[in-house]
Specification:
It is a single chain. The chain is an alpha+beta fold. It contains 2 helices and 2 strands; from the N terminus they run ββαα. A two-stranded antiparallel ribbon has the order 1-2. The longest helix has 10 residues.
Length: 71
């Protein structure tokens, strides 16, 4: 649904990326099928391997997402 990239203004080397998916299955499919290739493309830009965590969306005013409607 969307990708949000946050860049720290106090720690220039720190970046957080948040991806929003319609369904958990879509996120899992991306992770299994595409993530390795993307990580390989940006590996030279990374100081450490990315840490992946999964959260449920509680709400989003920008995306008009209600509780439990996105993975």
């Amino acid at each position: 649904m969307d990708e949000i990239v946050l860049h720290s203004d106090t720690e220039p080397e720190r970046v957080v990326s948040v991806s929003l998916w319609e369904r958990r299955e879509d996120a899992e499919e991306y992770h299994h099928n595409d993530y390795a290739a993307i990580r390989k493309m940006v590996r030279s830009l990374l100081e450490a391997d990315p840490v992946i965590r999964t959260f449920n969306v509680n709400s989003s005013t920008a995306h008009k997402i209600a509780t439990g409607k996105a993975a």
